[in-house]
Design goal:
It is built from four helices and no strands. Helix content is 60%, strand content 0%.
Length: 78
C-alpha cells in the first residue's frame, strides 16, 4: 500500500476552484495560485469525488461561455 500526503480536498476548496473555472481560467492558471492544489490533484479529484466532477463540469461550461461571449486578450486574463 502506498501512502502520500493527505489530500487538500474539501468542499469549500472544490467550490472555490470551480468558481475560478467558471471565470474562464484554465486549470493550470488556477493551480498556479498559492492557495490552490497541484493540477494533478485536481484531475485525481475528478475521478475520486463525483460531486466535484459535477460541479467542475458545470463550471467549465460557464467558463466556456465567458470565453466565447467576452473575448479578452491574454494579458487581460491575469
Amino acid at each position: 500500500m502506498t501512502t502520500g500526503r493527505p489530500t487538500k480536498y474539501s468542499p469549500d476548496l472544490a467550490r472555490e476552484f470551480c468558481r475560478r473555472v467558471a471565470e474562464g481560467r484554465t486549470n493550470e492558471e488556477i493551480c498556479a495560485d498559492a492557495d490552490m492544489p497541484h493540477v494533478r490533484s485536481v484531475y485525481r479529484w475528478l475521478d475520486e469525488y463525483p460531486d466535484f466532477c459535477h460541479l467542475y463540469l458545470t463550471a467549465k461550461g460557464k467558463g466556456m461561455l465567458v470565453l466565447v461571449c467576452e473575448p479578452r486578450r491574454d494579458d487581460e486574463r491575469r
